[in-house]
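Dear support,

We are seeing what looks like truncated structure output for some complexes. This example has two components. We would appreciate it if you could run it in full and send us the complete C-alpha cell output so we can diff it against ours.
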Amino acid sequence: MNHALRRFESVLSANTPARVSFWVLVALYLAAIFAPWLAPYAGDDESRACSWAPPSTIHLRELDGSWHAPFVRAVSYSFDDDARRVWTEDSSCRFPIRFLVHGRLLGLDHPVVSPVVGRDAPTGRLYQQPGRPYEPAGRLYLLGADARGRDLFSRILYGSRVSLTIGVVGVAISTLIALVVGGIAGFAGGWVDGALMRLCEVVMLVPAFYLLMLLRAALPLDWDSRLVYFYIILILSFLGWAGLARILRGMIQSLRQSDFIAASRALGLSPWRNLWRHALPQTFGFLSVQATLSIPGYIVAESGLSLLGLGIQDPQTSWGNLLEESMSIAEIRLHPWSLLPGLFLFAAVLSWNLLGDALRDTFDPRSLS
Amino acid sequence: MIPMLLGVSLLSFLLLQLSPGDPLSAQRGNPQVPDALIHRIETEYGFDKPVPEQYLLWLSRTLHGDLGYSFKYKRPVADVIRERVGATLLLAVFSSLLSWLLAVPLGVWAALRRGQWPDRLVSLTAFVGMSLPSFFLALLLLFAASVAPPIPGFGRFPIGGLVSPEFDQFGLWERIGDVLRHLLIPGLVLAVGGVAGLQRVCRGSMLETLRQPYVLAARARGLPQRSVLWRHAFRNAANPLITLLGFEFSALLSGAAFTEIITSWPGLGLVALEAVRAKDLFLVMATVLMGSFLLLAGNLLSDLLHAWNDPRVKLS
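Here is the complete output from our reference environment:
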C-alpha cells in the first residue's frame, strides 16, 4: 500500500497536468463536503423578485466617490419593449460583502444607507428619510440567479454533492459486480463461464442510452429524490459492469494457468479462497486505473439523465438538472450564465481523465509501448 | 447475432413491463374514448394476456414483419422507424467521416513529432475534446450559432432540425446544401467526442509501426517520406483503428441520442426518448432493437474492413 502511494506521488510530481487535476479534484470534493458552509444561500432559498438576476456587480466606490470594502446593491427589474428584463440598481443602500456571517463563509451584511440619502441615481426617485430603517433586499449572486431567483453559485455547490459522488459510488459498485462475475466466470470455466459471458454480451449489446432510459422508465418518476439518487447509481453501475467483467475474466483465466496459483492449489487451498486471496489481488492495479478512467462516464451519464428530466429533479440539484434550464436557445441567449454548471462538469471530467491517464501510464504495464 | 437480439428484446420487454402505466394510459384517461374501444384494442394486441404470452405474441408478429402500431404517433411503427433511421445513420456516418478526417492526420503528426510540442498540443486538445460532455458542447455551439452574425454566402447557422422550413421549394443542390448546413453542428459535436480516442490509438499504433524493420527497409531503399508513411506504415497501423470503428459506431448511437435531442435532430434517439416517456410499447421495442441491430452491423462492418485491409485476417 505504501509502495503504491509512493508511486502515486511520483506520478504527480512528474506530470504537471495530473498534479493540477489532482488538486482541482481535491478542491471540488472539499467544496462538495463543505457546501452548506461555502454557499452563500441554502439551495432552495428563492427570491421571486430576482428572477434571472445577472451576476452581481461588485462595487468599491460609493456615489460620492468614497472607497469602501466590496459591496453590492439591491437590484430590481422592469421589462422593455421586447419583454426583456432591464435591471436597475438601487443605490440608496450598499450591502457590504463579509466573510463568516450568518454561519456561512460568505454573505451580505446589514445594509448601510448611502450618504447621498436615499436618492436612487438612475430614476432620481427619493426612497426613505434618513434614520428610518429601510430594508431593500440585497442578494449576492456571484454567478447569477435562476428563474426563481435562487443563487446559481450555491446551487452548483449543492449540486456537486450529487454529481461528484455518483461517479465514485457507481464505479465502486460496478467494479464489485465485475469482480464477482468476472472472477467466477474466469475461475469456474465451463457452462458457468459461458452463461455469464452471454449475459455480459446482451447487456453490452443494448446501446447504453436506450438501456439507461428503459431502466429509468421502469420506475415511477415521482419517487423521493434520495431513492432516485440511489436508483440512478444502481442503473449506472448496471451499465458499467459488463465490459469490465469480460476483461477481468480474461485476466483471471490467464492467472489460473500461472505457477503460483497451481502451487497454492497443490497445497490444498480451496478454489474460492485461491481466487480471492491470490488471483484477484493481481488485478487491483489494473482495476484502480480502470476505475479512475470510468468515473467521468458516470458523471456525464448522470448529468445527461438529469438534463433530460429523467434523473435528479428540481428541488434537489445536480449539475445536469441545473443545465436543464438552458435547454432552449431563447433561454441561453437571455441569460448565458445558466450554462455555467456545464463548466464545472467539464472541469471535473477533464481532471478525472487527466489523472486517470497519468495513472495508466504508471500502473498499467501493458500500455508501456 | 440472432440469439443476442432475442436476449436484448426479452430484456427490454421485461423492463418495460416493470414500469407503471401501459401504452393505452393516455387513451384510458380520455373520456371521449369509449371503454369498449379500449377493451377491443387490448384484446387485439393481447395486452390482457400474461406477460410471457404477450412477449411471444409480439415476437411472432415481429418475425412476420409487423412491428405493431405506435399509439403516440398514431401510425404504424415501421413507418416511424423508417423515417428516423435515415437521419440517425446520416448523422453517424457524417460524424465518423469527420472524426476520421481529423483524427488520422493529427495522430500521425503527433507520432512523428513524439514528445515535442505538436504531440503535447494535440494530446491536450484531445483531452479537452474528450472531456466536453456532448450535450454541453451542443449547447455551447448552439449558443454561439445563435449569437453569431450571419456569414456571407452561408447565412446564419441553423440551430436545430434536419431541414429549413422552405426545404420543399429548393432544387436538388440547394436541398443537399441545406441538409449539410443542418448537419454541421450535431456532426461536429459527435465528431469531437470521437477524435480524442481515435487520435490516441492512431498515434500509439503509428509509433509502434514506425519502429518495425520493414519501415527502416523502405526508408533505406530511398522511398520518399510520404510513400513510407502512408503506403507502408499507415496501412498496418490502421488495423486497430478499424477494430475501433465498431465500438465507435456503438458510442455514436448512444452519444447521438443526447445530441439529437438537444439539436432537435429527428433521429432514433429523439423518438426513443418520446416513446419511453409515453410507454409506447411497440415503438420502444422497435427502437431498441434497431439500435442494437445498427450496433451489430457496425461490428460486422469493422470485421469486413479489417479483412479487407489486413490479408492475414481470413473471413470464415
